[in-house]
Design a protein that fits this description.
With 138 residues, the protein is of the alpha/beta class. It contains 6 helices and 5 strands, in the order ααβαβαβαββα. The N terminus is likely disordered.
Length: 138
């Protein structure tokens, strides 16, 4: 059953390579820390939160990795990419079973933080203020 669910997640956003556990493990191995932010073009507030989380990453000197809802409508996602001036790297759908098990696709946006090779804390759902994110992530 888990493999069927994962197959559906991986195949639903056909125009970009999914962000997998392999990608997550590589980042956690080579970087001291980072922020994963999953957004959805179906949730406009999650798109507005992109600038907030990027500012948080700048303040904490942590890279931010933007991932998209794996069930997102392609046309809406491409429109959002143009409007918010996102790069192709910001259009990778979540395909990481580790992140999915942490409920990163339950609500958009959702944030997961990694430091020193490990995921830290739980998933942070919803858009927060810059100051609130700083308190939750530091």
């Amino acid at each position: 059953m888990r493999f069927l669910l994962l197959a559906l997640v991986l195949s639903s956003f056909a125009f970009a390579k999914s962000f997998t556990d392999e990608d997550l493990n590589y980042l956690m191995k080579v970087l001291p820390g980072g922020i994963v932010y999953v957004w959805s073009p179906h949730m406009p507030y999650s798109m507005k939160g992109i600038r907030i989380i990027q500012a948080v990453g700048d303040r904490l000197r942590l890279p931010v990795f933007l991932l998209v809802d794996p069930h997102a409508n392609r046309t809406l996602a491409l429109d959002a990419q143009r409007i918010f001036q996102l790069g192709d790297k910001d259009m990778r759908p979540v395909g990481s079973w580790t992140l999915i098990q942490r409920n990163i696709t339950t609500q958009f946006p959702s944030v997961v933080v990694f430091k020193n090779g490990n995921l830290r804390g739980g998933t942070i759902p919803g858009v927060k203020s810059e100051e609130h994110y700083l308190k939750l992530i530091e």
